[in-house]
Design goal:
The chain is α+β, with helices and mostly antiparallel strands and 522 residues long. It has helices at residues 72-79, 85-103, 171-187, 193-203, 206-216, 311-321, 334-347, 356-365, 367-377, 382-393, 404-426, 432-436, 440-446, 462-492, 497-506; strands at residues 22-23, 34-35, 54-60, 112-118, 124-131, 142-145, 152-157, 221-232, 235-245, 257-259, 273-276, 279-284, 293-299, 325-327, 452-454, 457-459. It starts with 21 loop residues before the first strand and ends in a 16-residue tail after the last helix.
Amino acid sequence: MPMPTGVPSDAAPATAGRQGTRSRAGRDAADGGLTGSPLSSRPGGDRAGWPAGRFSTSSYTAQMGHWAESLVDEVAQQIGGNPDRRLLMDLAAQAGRELEVLSGRSFRPLRRMTSVFETNGLPFADIPDMQVGSMDSMAGVREVPDPVDPQIAAVLQGAPLANPAPNAAPAADALWVAGQLAAEASRTGLLSGDYVLHWLAASMDREQRAELMRRVMDPAVRFSVPILGVSVGGWWIQIARRLIWVTSETEDEGRLIELLVDNRRTGGEVAPLAAVEPILIAARMTRQPADWAFTARIWTGGVRRPIGRPWRKIAEAIHGHGIPTITLDSVSTPYEIACQVVLKGYWHGYIGSDEPALANAVAMAYPRQVERIQRVTRAPDSASAAATLLAQLIRPGFDPAQGAEAIRRYVRRKASIAVMEYRKAEAPDRYPWTQIGISERRYYKLLPLFAQKVNGRYVLDHDDVVARMKAHLDQVDHKRAVRADALDVLRAHGFGEDAARKWLHRHRLEEAVDAWPRGQRP
């Protein structure tokens, strides 16, 4: 069962007052010193220019490899002829960018880089595809191997756990609670760009903000604005947004950004200060260092991505190699968002299909659809009806580029399909394709031969269509049987397989009785 549905009372925005690490890093580490100390009450720390929770790491990012250019030769070979390779390159690059946005990863080759993390009191930070084991050794700083692909890490632990929890709730239950915390953060406006600006204004003075802007201009600095941080059920759950200064040197990590300062209304320009999409992290706290962490991106109601490729064709790739993306809007209920987090955890391989929380989450998030299925199918309880709906939702899953409203439409449509399939199985004689003895798909492929559409709908007499379609299929079967007999006769007369088929293409079937290979007529 999912964990209690109420948001814990301590689920308040995290503030810079928790224990963490602080160190000099990158080019600032000339003296090589690394010290840990309690965080001060302000992001500026107890020394000017030194934010709390700041540390650096030099590591290799995972060797994912950008595949856009490497596919050009393969595509050109499949097309044949002499296609325009520049056009193929552009199309491959466009497809690559779309997949990077949906997956939240940039798929760059293996390289070494130094990053400076300023977590502002949060014990964890997201990091783009670090290669596990490549990070320089630092006191209290550890990468958390991805549970799905242990060779890479998407989460970095920057502060040791003072007292690891003796036990923790199942992962699916933790994701359910994490989804409700995200819903509460959205309801109270904590996921907006306005909150980021409010946090900056409340947490530091003008001089410190100016110093922060100078630090954020460095692409190596990963400054996180804490949105919430809470410990519940043996898990640490946090949401944060990273600040970046958008320039021509800013690397594209496949993440969406939101510009924070727009001065065009006052005659100014758009300042390049931006916040990356909110990142949700749920980490298990039973071991030090943490050994299991889930990361998800959060797309709010204003996000729309015009991806021109069918989701069913790329869903498997995104689920297999991407970071889960949660989409929500002002209409989304806490249970819908929590259910989405649980399902994303399943689709991306973080939890198994045997988790009872999957069906329970569907039942609580979509009670109207589950009640309809239970009523029509006479299921013994809502859990059974929810399992029926879940079976429909499994493939291809939610398309994050379409937004939260598209997810609700998807669920309603899948519930209708579940009801329709049940009715078909209960009363097969009601449907014309079962009377004819063919599949529904083949029936609708043949239907244009026997009926016409008026205003987008077929106008027909079902009994007449069934009779004519049966006659048509009987005639097709008869011709097929006669052709098979003719092939048998030709092979018996000495024709080879290819020669017999070529002969039938050039002659009538009834002539096969008197046909013989040249020079073999008796």
